[in-house]
Amino acid sequence: MKKLTKKKKHDLLMGYIFVSPWLIGFIAFIIFPLVTSLYLSFTRYDILTSPRWIGFQNWIRMFTQDPRFWSATKATFKYVLFEVPLRLIFAFIVALIFSMKESKILNLYRAIYYIPSLIGGSVAIAVVWRQIWGYDGIINAFLSIFGIHGINWLGDTRTAIWTLILLAVWQFGSPMLIFLAALKQVPTELYEAATIDGASFWKRLTSITLPMITPVILFNLINQMIHGFMAFTQSYIITQGGPLDSTLFYAVYMYRKAFNDFEMGYASALAWFMLALVGLFTIIIFKTSNRWVYYEAEEGV
Amino acid sequence: MRRNFRLLMILLVLVCFLLAISPAQQQVTLRIIWWGSQDRHNRTLKVIDLFQKKYPNIKIVAEYTGWSEYYTKLTTMAAGGNLPDIMQQDHAYLRGWVEKGFLLPLDDLVAQGVINLKDVAKSIVDSGKLKGKLYAINLGNNSQAFAIDPEIFRKAGVPLPPTLWTWEDFKRIARIIHRKLGIYGAAENLGDHNVFRVWTIENGGYLFSDDGKSLGYEDDNVYANFYRMLLELQDEGVIPSRDVEIARGSVSPEQRFICLGKSAMQFTWSNQLTAMSKALKGKQLRLYMLPTLKGKVGNFLKPSMFFAINAKTKYPKEAATFIDFFINDIEAAKILMAERGVPISKRVQLALKPLLSPVEKEIFNFISIVEKYGAPTPAPDPERWQEIYNNVYTPLYDQIMYKKITPEEAAKKFREQVIQILKR
Lengths: 301, 424
Description:
- Chain A has helices at 6-40, 57-64, 67-100, 104-119, 123-133, 138-145, 160-170, 173-185, 188-196, 201-229, 233-239, 250-259, 264-292, 296-299; strands at 43-44, 52-53.
- By secondary structure, chain A is mainly α.
- Chain A starts with 5 loop residues before the first helix and ends with a helix.
- By secondary structure, chain B is α/β, with parallel strands linked by helices.
């Protein structure tokens, strides 16, 4: 190791002092809780009495004795599996339409289409959604015009989760904006060349547009997947996890374990399992990405 | 020397000055927390005002929330060592809070006369006792009830049932009303654990054993029979099907089917009649004890809620003074009325009698009927009851009503899973 000069030492110190607000925040609010929760996942802790070390009991219980844990995992997987692709496809289609023409009125529409994403995660929207799909809600009132009566959207195990997926798909704003930016980056000369060669719209879409924006698709996919696994409000407010736990999202179950049953240790174990799961899926997607993601720069000339 | 003398004089004056003002500064600030509806918040805040006028040296800072987040908040406060001096406590949580040492034993304060319980029946005082010590003061009595709508009964040509009616009567009446008027005979959450608790008493046991370490009934048929009855009524359309109830979510007393004219009977706590009557705009509902089984009554008086004192409070005496004021002062009682259940003090009850509205009169009468016929109040729930309710009782109830599982299978699972949790 080379010894640092006095000046360099001073600079280093000053540097750390300048980033210290962030560093302190990072250690106090991220590292510390993270490590604590890992420790707590091996304890029994009800907040009121001090944590008691029980080894792997929480983990064993999770996998062998807790049917609701499996319900929650199943419901969350189902949600992510449908919600993420649907939202991305929808966002992509809307972005494609917006990217084709440039006009002032389209800018306004862009803003309007983003609104659901701004308000979509809110409790207010969830409450409204509940009213819309409720037994005496607007949807059923509308259907009764056509003689269809009394579909119990929120009370039926087959339909309840779809109302939540639909709400999530409606909030396509942020992936849409990212897609839009990516679409604008695709060099126009590629399209011009293709058009001269007589390529149809469909051909241009599949051979130029999609390959060119695959890095952004990858980004959106991972981002949305992580969000999907963390979904909370919809389930908590609209269906309260019911009926028969068919919409019991993992995050809701974790919250209930922690703050209704006061099992902080068990909830911490649940949290770490979710972290591992999301990490695993992210790695899988990254590993497969070099097969389908196209980076222009790597090609060379 | 002279200089020193002057300094001494100044110091002396200062000390005198301080001594003179310090008694006036002995202002005590107490914190109090409760859960409830807006109606309860308003009433309680008014009583606090009244108290502060009477005891100008005590200032009370109030915190209040709804029920659903109450214990989350209180537990977090306890973890932070930041508990209020006076806390509203629920019967189901009392055992846990006492065992963890958060609550102050009140026996000394009662012996000193700071809290006066002379006009309170012993059984009511005892409901706040655990292991021989008094930890919490009951604020009012409640009981399980069926609210029934006499107008609908008249329309269907059904006479009102006798006080001691049976489940057979109940089923018969509900069916007639459903057949004649096309509405629900009885509605909303008939499988509530509180109905089931009454059912277990009528079967000669209780939900939990006295020590809170196992179930309080031997025969799994007790459980299965209860749900067989519910399934039967659900299939006939006499009660709402479970998926309709779940889709409606948790409804407040004012939104229940009976308040919308869509049902003739409704399970409720007696003090909720006030809220339900408000929604019905003057239409008077009647309260009945839950139906009996083979001549056995399962209804019991339940302490609606308690006040307890933080074990680490700096001012136990002042906190106790407030509780005493809350349960014994006539002016305070006139503001509170029966919102927290029927007041525990016989003297207060007497003073309120001429002031009661028809609805409150119905509640008072009902409680005196339960006092006469009812079963003794069971021991507080085991500490893990909430977990059992959330993860075992409710999921199984739903699964039975959705026909994913038979009542017999559920009865077995219920026993297994409850014992698993209680043993952990």
